[in-house]
């Protein structure tokens, strides 16, 4: 198939899922055309089945806000015509789904079906805002196919937007070959020179991730035992987290790595992963950690219980309950095996439901179904 994929190219779950999906499809000999304002961060430009089409937004003094939605729709049509696309697959409803709807209308009477994958905040935070609700609902209803990344998000979409059309749950996935535990004693010794256990967090540091709770949890753990905290990512809450680290005099034990590539190499060195988010419709970073045999302490919110089984491959606490999270962390890290047994179960459970080998065919089948119907 020839598939056009649109996503946010920046550091964030929906962009990562869209890019990994594109690369997995390319590995299965589909031609994948990414259409966005910049190449997605994890995209491999050297893959002969991967192409990138940049959306250029012309500016004009009259435009306080350059009309990206329109420039994207125009580029989608252009790529459809020049590359004979079979379909468009857009990730994150706002504004990608609206652009795809415009492109499909402009392409008529030629067929340009489009599929919208909902990722979370496009429904739970942004989409349900009154400024965007009617158009998000309309573009969901008008999509040729709609998928959500968890059952939780499916139910939220039905509830928030009163959607009656069929939608399918296709969960997020991880490449279980790439994301597996690999030792790196040199790096481990650099981060934890005295063999301290390593706690890790990876996100876009947005308020929804509750980054300062990560620091609070770590401070409680550190008060009881030697430990190190490795923070991967960047975003608006980095400043407040750095301030809290200084306030608690933890500078020697907390490492801010910033944005990183090949996160599987780093995740593999963790003894414990922390994801104390206010809300997660899935929690992709937790799944990536689990695939690397890392147990996770997360919040019992949204789609997280569909990924983590409390007491089996991790622990779930209520948002903001840093005391409970720290208690579970100390419990895991005080064990003689430092939670390695739980980490092994985490990988087994991740492999059962979320390996790309099982999930990508679900997307391929869905594409075929939509193409047959369109
Ligand atoms: O988490 C965010 O900041 C936004 C969003 C994104 O586009 O990165 O994340 C959502 O999509 C991810 C990939 O499907 C999910 O793993 C996240 O759980 C989901 N975030 C929320 O629902 C808050």
Describe the protein.
The strands form two sheets. The chain has a seven-stranded parallel beta sheet, with helices on both faces. Strands 10-9-8-11-12-13 form a six-stranded parallel beta sheet, with helices on both faces. Helix 2 packs across helix 3 and helix 8 packs parallel to helix 9. The chain has two domains: 190 residues, Glycogen Phosphorylase B (Rossmann fold), CATH 3.40.50; 170 residues, Rossmann fold (3-Layer(aba) Sandwich), CATH 3.40.50.2000. Helices cover 42% and strands 16% of the residues. It is α/β, with parallel strands linked by helices and 374 residues long. The longest helix has 18 residues. It is elongated, with a radius of gyration of 21 Å. The site of ligand GMT has 21 residues, from helix 1 and helix 4.
| Whole-number tally of structural domains | 2
- Total DSSP E strands: 13
Q: What fold name stands as the CATH topology of the largest domain?
A: Rossmann fold
Report the β-strand fraction as a percent range. Answer: 15-25%
Q: Say which molecules are bound, naming each kind only once.
A: ligand GMT
Question: Quick gist of this model?
Answer:
With 374 residues, this protein is of the alpha/beta class. It has helices spanning 13-27, 68-83, 96-107, 121-124, 133-142, 151-161, 185-191, 211-224, 238-247, 263-267, 284-291, 322-334, 340-354, 356-373; strands at 2-6, 31-36, 50-54, 87-91, 114-118, 145-148, 168-169, 198-203, 228-233, 254-258, 272-275, 296-299, 314-317. It folds into 2 domains: 2-173 and 356-373, Rossmann fold; 185-354, Glycogen Phosphorylase B (Rossmann fold).
